[in-house]
């Protein structure tokens, strides 16, 4: 299963510099495993040690946030477009 | 390091303040769409999905929509604004730790005093540097923080 992964600016230096790459996998977990195998330096920014999605990463399949599609189990279909965006959060605390 | 500059219009400044005041008692927030030279083209308000007076998080839907709009319009997401309701317009340790992009402008609105205050910073590897905010559409003597409308 091939999908297009759109890479945010901040992750590009560690992922070969491209704005998007073709990735393999039928779930978000499989896609991110493919990505971290190719670019080990970004693993800590994508996944927690237990394999769940990093708290400060937003992952979308087409228009949908994967948190509402099963997280790492969210299905990926042929030609889907996956977008990674760092969460934008902070606060006075 | 040469200090960078953020250029906004008086109405964009008002839009940021209005978003933050409307969000009270929670922190308000939104994204800045603009050019790599730091000229803001539009202020995109977001719900604070953390719904908290202590923390904020931009709605992931607004985030995706704004990045796509930037691509479509040849612009960039150049920064984020959020309010501190009871503390100064300076990035907190949380803001610094979680700053997503070293190229961004981080605008802080403090509603802790009257007048409210708006300041902008760069945050690069934990180092915070305040930058000049140029407000177009105001006389030069008015470009420093001035009273808000509330």
Question: What's the helix and strand layout?
Answer:
The complex is a heterodimer of chains A (93) and B (150).
Chain A: E1 2-6, E2 20-24, H1 28-38, H2 43-46, E3 57-61, E4 64-65, E5 81-86, E6 89-91
Parallel strand pairs in A: 1-5
Antiparallel strand pairs in A: 1-2, 3-4, 3-5
Chain B: E1 5-9, H1 10-23, E2 29-34, E3 40-46, E4 55-57, H2 60-73, E5 76-84, H3 93-98, E6 105-110, E7 117-124, E8 127-136
Parallel strand pairs in B: 1-8, 5-6
Antiparallel strand pairs in B: 2-3, 2-5, 6-7, 7-8
Summarize the structure.
The complex is a heterodimer of chains A (93) and B (150). Chain A has 93 residues and is of the alpha+beta class.
Walkthrough of the structure:
- The complex is a heterodimer of chains A (93) and B (150).
- Helices cover 16% and strands 28% of the residues of chain A.
- Chain A has helices spanning 28-38, 43-46; strands at 2-6, 20-24, 57-61, 64-65, 81-86, 89-91.
- Chain A has a five-stranded mixed beta sheet, covered by helices on one side.
- The radius of gyration of chain A is 13 Å and the shape is globular.
- The termini of chain A are far apart.
- With 150 residues, chain B is an alpha/beta fold.
- Chain B has one domain (29-137): Cytidine Deaminase, domain 2 (3-Layer(aba) Sandwich).
- Helices cover 23% and strands 36% of the residues of chain B.
- In chain B, helix 3 (93-98) links the parallel strand 5 and strand 6 (105-110).
- At the A-B interface, strand 5 and strand 6 of A face strand 4, helix 2, strand 5 and helix 3 of B.
- Strand 6 (89-91) of chain A pairs antiparallel with strand 4 (55-57) of chain B.
């Amino acid at each position: 299963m091939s999908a297009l992964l759109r890479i945010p600016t901040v992750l590009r230096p560690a992922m070969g510099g491209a704005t998007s790459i073709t990735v393999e996998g039928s779930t978000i977990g499989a896609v991110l495993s493919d990505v971290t195998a190719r670019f080990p330096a970004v693993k800590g920014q994508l996944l927690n040690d237990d394999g769940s999605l990093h708290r400060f990463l937003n992952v979308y399949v087409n228009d949908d946030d994967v948190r509402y599609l099963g997280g790492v189990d969210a299905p990926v279909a042929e030609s889907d477009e996956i977008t990674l965006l760092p969460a934008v959060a902070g606060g006075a605390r | 390091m040469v200090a960078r500059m953020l250029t906004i219009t008086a109405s964009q400044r008002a839009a940021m303040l209005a978003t933050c005041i409307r969000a009270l008692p929670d922190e308000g927030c939104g994204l800045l769409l603009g050019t790599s030279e730091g000229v803001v083209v539009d202020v995109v308000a977001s719900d604070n999905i953390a719904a908290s007076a202590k923390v904020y998080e931009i709605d992931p839907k607004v985030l995706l929509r704004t990045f796509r709009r930037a691509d479509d319009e040849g612009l960039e997401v150049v920064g984020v604004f959020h309010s501190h309701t009871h503390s100064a317009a300076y990035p907190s340790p949380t803001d610094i730790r979680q700053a997503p992009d070293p190229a961004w402008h981080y605008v802080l609105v403090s509603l802790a005093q009257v007048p409210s205050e708006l300041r902008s910073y760069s945050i690069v590897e934990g180092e915070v540097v305040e930058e000049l905010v140029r407000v177009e559409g105001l006389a030069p003597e008015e470009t420093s923080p001035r009273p808000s409308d509330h």
